[in-house]
Amino acid sequence: MNISFDDLHKAFESRIRLGIMSVLAVNESLDFTALKEFLDVTDGNLATHLKKLEKEEFISVEKSFIDNKPNTKYSMTPNGKEAFDNHLQALEAIIKSQKES
């Protein structure tokens, strides 16, 4: 049986980007520090992956100040939710096809 992986979105191939989208799927928004602690990554590594998802318009960024300190929050966009849901459905289809074979 041939399985098509074409429906998997390349933006989510990275474990860090997959982690970002997973955590934003269940939280309205999270700030940079919370994402960094949850994913256990460096500032530079997280920033690189966040920029990639922002460029794809899968996440939105809100910058503000809390107690005179900069705070950057990230949330999933409707476009990101649709792409992530489609990615998960493709994974489920692949897994289901293997269970049935």
Automatic annotation (TrEMBL):
Pfam families: HTH_34. Residues 16-95 form the Winged helix DNA-binding domain. It comes from the Bacteria. One of its GO terms (biological process) is regulation of DNA-templated transcription. This is Transcriptional regulator. It comes from Rhodohalobacter barkolensis.
